[in-house]
Automatic annotation (TrEMBL):
<feature type="binding site">
    <location>
        <position position="284"/>
    </location>
    <ligand>
        <name>Mg(2+)</name>
    </ligand>
</feature>
<dbReference type="InterPro" id="IPR044250">
    <property type="entry name" value="MenF-like"/>
</dbReference>
<dbReference type="GO" id="GO:0008909">
    <property type="term" value="F:isochorismate synthase activity"/>
</dbReference>
<comment type="function">
    <text>Catalyzes the conversion of chorismate to isochorismate.</text>
</comment>
<dbReference type="GO" id="GO:0009234">
    <property type="term" value="P:menaquinone biosynthetic process"/>
</dbReference>
<keyword id="KW-0460">Magnesium</keyword>
<feature type="active site" description="Proton acceptor">
    <location>
        <position position="190"/>
    </location>
</feature>
<dbReference type="InterPro" id="IPR015890">
    <property type="entry name" value="Chorismate_C"/>
</dbReference>
<dbReference type="InterPro" id="IPR034681">
    <property type="entry name" value="MenF"/>
</dbReference>
<comment type="pathway">
    <text>Quinol/quinone metabolism; menaquinone biosynthesis.</text>
</comment>
<feature type="active site" description="Proton donor">
    <location>
        <position position="240"/>
    </location>
</feature>
<comment type="similarity">
    <text>Belongs to the isochorismate synthase family.</text>
</comment>
<feature type="binding site">
    <location>
        <position position="417"/>
    </location>
    <ligand>
        <name>Mg(2+)</name>
    </ligand>
</feature>
<dbReference type="InterPro" id="IPR004561">
    <property type="entry name" value="IsoChor_synthase"/>
</dbReference>
<keyword id="KW-0413">Isomerase</keyword>
<comment type="pathway">
    <text>Quinol/quinone metabolism; 1,4-dihydroxy-2-naphthoate biosynthesis; 1,4-dihydroxy-2-naphthoate from chorismate: step 1/7.</text>
</comment>
<dbReference type="Pfam" id="PF00425">
    <property type="entry name" value="Chorismate_bind"/>
</dbReference>
Length: 434
């Protein structure tokens, strides 16, 4: 096996060969060694090419880094249709984001795709043209010639010059009262309401460095990063899987119900035990389980709901119930997106009524928050819910976090829950991480 630098040189040499003059796709894939200091995110951050996409599975066993786009797709149907054209390439992978409104997306076929499963890494160069694959070769050569080395991701050193919340504390109290009144009136059973913390810094934060800092300290999470260009990036560290598909086997989950975390193991265990037995949090979690099961009825086999468990993170703890099943014939990632996003854990129940309430009353547009990030191929796919996340636009950072509102929810408690969730990223700007 070769180093990454050697593999990129070999890929460049391979472009001197003959390529089809008809429309279509061709891939050049080579394995390489993961030496000391190999870091897909640092490699990605060293490039001045876009879009950039980084994703790491919450177990750490899989990660990918995608650079440049041969083709882009504004929604999942277009991405799924593209994959269907290349059924003879089951490992062909697309990646990117789906917005909170799943009809909107930013998915793409990467020019270069670094993939790692366990200790095995490979780099794929995609050539694609709707006219002639051979016509894409000069563009690919130019792209490779513009590659740079990895960049050291230094700790954040920033000065926050202004901060505000949407909604602010008083508005939050009024919003929660309005929601609980609507629940009491029977309009819906649950709604998930969110807050944005707007942080303005003296200079633009290094988005990749923020992602690296979060990856270091926020264990047990998916890590996702999408740089749209040099000024704008969306990133986060989410504990929640939306779905994982291997062939027709589907894994999803209900992650709902929250209590604060604690660095002390005994105190964390005590809080976790309270969470496991708290009626409000158990009820909130079961609402999500029931909604997922109802939405998958008719498109899958037997649904297996596993026993509840407490997921301990750096700042909070959650209740999680995993749900396993098998998709019926014809089930694909578009079906998974349509059935599962947004879940009751990020929108509410009934979903349409909760979404209408959110659209009327939240004082901001969610965009990518509470959507999903990941990748898909004909053979496998995996997407996480885009929670505990931030949108960076120049020197402004927008931090997103939400709380599930059910009968009996109290504004002060929910405000603190949102603070705890936002702290996973927010603390990286204001203190040296533990």
């Amino acid at each position: 096996m070769n180093s990454l630098a050697d593999v990129l040189k070999q890929i460049q040499l391979a472009l001197s060969g003959a390529f089809s003059t008809t429309p279509g796709l061709q891939q050049i894939t080579m394995a390489f060694s993961l030496g000391d200091g190999s870091d897909a995110l640092a490699w990605l951050a060293g490039q001045r090419l876009w879009p950039q996409f980084y994703w790491q599975q919450r177990s750490g066993d899989e990660e990918l880094a995608a650079l440049g786009a041969c083709a882009t797709f504004s929604d999942m149907p277009a991405a799924q249709a593209f994959l269907a054209q290349y059924a003879d390439a089951p490992e062909l992978a697309l990646c990117g984001l789906n917005a909170f409104d799943p009809a909107q997306g930013r998915l793409f076929l990467p020019r270069l795709l670094w993939q790692r499963r366990g200790a095995v890494a490979r780099m794929t160069l995609n050539l694609y043209s709707a006219v002639s694959v051979n016509d894409d070769v000069p563009r690919a050569r130019d792209f490779l010639a513009r590659l740079s080395c990895s960049r050291a991701l230094k700790p954040l050193q920033l000065a926050c010059i202004k901060e505000s919340q949407q909604p602010d504390r008083a508005q939050w109290g009024a919003l929660i009262a309005r929601a609980t009144d609507a629940i009491a009136a029977g309009e819906f059973d649950k709604v998930v309401l969110a807050r944005v913390d707007n942080l303005h810094f003296s200079r633009a934060p290094d988005a990749a460095a923020l992602m690296a800092a979060s990856r270091r300290v926020n264990g047990g999470c998916y890590h996702f990063f999408m740089a749209f260009d040099a000024e704008r990036a969306f990133l986060g560290s989410s504990p929640e899987r939306l779905w994982r598909r291997t062939g027709d086997r589907l894994r999803t989950e209900a992650l709902a119900g929250t209590v604060a975390g604690d660095p002390d193991d005994a105190q964390a265990a005590q809080l976790g035990d309270w969470l496991m037995h708290d009626d409000k949090n158990q009820r909130e979690n079961m609402l999500v389980v029931e909604d997922i099961c109802q939405r998958l009825q008719g498109v899958c086999g037997v649904l297996e709901v596993l026993a509840p468990q407490v997921v301990r993170l750096r700042k909070v703890q959650h209740l999680r119930r995993c749900i396993w099943t098998t998709l019926n014939a014809g089930g694909d990632d578009l079906l998974c997106l349509e059935r599962l996003q947004p879940t009751a854990a990020v929108a509410g129940l009934p979903r349409d009524a909760a979404r209408q309430f959110i659209a009327r009353h939240e004082p901001f547009t969610r965009e990518w928050y509470a959507g999903s990030a990941g990748w898909l191929s004909a053979r496998r796919s995996e997407f996480c819910v885009t929670l505990r996340c931030a949108l960076i636009e120049g020197a402004r950072v927008r931090l997103y976090a939400g709380a599930g509102i059910v009968a009996g929810s109290q504004a002060e408690h929910e405000w603190q829950e949102v603070n705890n969730k936002a702290a996973g990223l927010r603390s990286l700007f204001f203190a040296t991480p533990d």
